[in-house]
Amino acid sequence: MRCPACGSEDTQVTETRVSEDGVEIRRRRRCLACSRRFKTVERIELSLPYVVKKNGARLEFDEKRLRASFLLALRKRPVPAEIVDAAVRRVEEQLAASGEREVSTQRIGELVMLELKRLDKVAYIRFASVYRSFQDVAEFQELVAEVSPRQGSKSSLKIPRKSDKKR
After folding, report:
1. pLDDT by residue (tens digit) across 125-136?
2. What is the secondary structure of 128-142 as a DSSP string?
3. Which residues have CB under 8 Å from 53's CB, separation 6+?
4. Which of 127, 51, 132 has the alpha carbon at shortest distance from 95?
5. Res. 167 pLDDT band, cuts 50 70 90
6. What is the DSSP letter of 35?
7. Diameter over CA atoms, the chain
8. Which residue has the higher pLDDT, 66 or 150?
9. Contact 20, 14 (CB under 8 A)
10. If DSSP codes are grouped into helix, strand and coil, which group holds residue 8?
11. How far apart are CA 114 and CA 124, in angstroms?
């Protein structure tokens, strides 16, 4: 590993840590030439399929675009960055494990919706409303009903309305 300060290749690993999910290895290093310390991260590189868009165009898979989709749907929602990172990794791992050389944007969208449904119902509805491009309100209401707590369910949360505060 080359020192970012002086360019010397004479470096020494002083500490190694494996991430909680086992996907990354973080190393602290020291340059033997200039004594500067720096960190490196080793990450598993997945072989991901090409993405086929609706118009037939083929693009290399871009993790940044996938992350941006998650972040847009989760904007102003209480979901920590680590959870988003894990969801992005799960989608990437599913795509890599599929063994396919090409995958449609529709398939990627479905995987994103599954992750968002687990993470945050509001983000799921946001993403699905754009992704599925609803034609009328009834389709949107069906989606909301799908994620809404059922009547009599133990997990149902009562959300106060503005009109309830007046009482």
Report:
1. 888 877 777 777
2. HHHHTT-SSHHHHHH
3. 59, 105
4. 51
5. very low
6. -
7. 74
8. 66
9. no
10. coil
11. 8
What span, in angstroms and rounded, lies between the C-alpha atoms of 107 and 101? 13
Q: Tokens 């030439």 identify what position?
A: 33
- What band does 149 get if pLDDT is binned at 50, 70 and 90? confident
Contact 19, 25 (CB under 8 A): yes
Q: Is 91 exposed, middle or buried (0-12, 13-18, 19+ CB in 10 A)?
A: buried
Which tokens is 103 given?
Answer: 């995958």
120 Cβ neighbours under 8 A, 6+ residues apart: 73, 74, 77, 78, 79
Q: Is 117 within 8 Å of 125 (Cβ atoms)?
A: no
Return the residue matching tokens 């509805």. 125
Q: Which residue has the tokens 């949107």?
A: 140
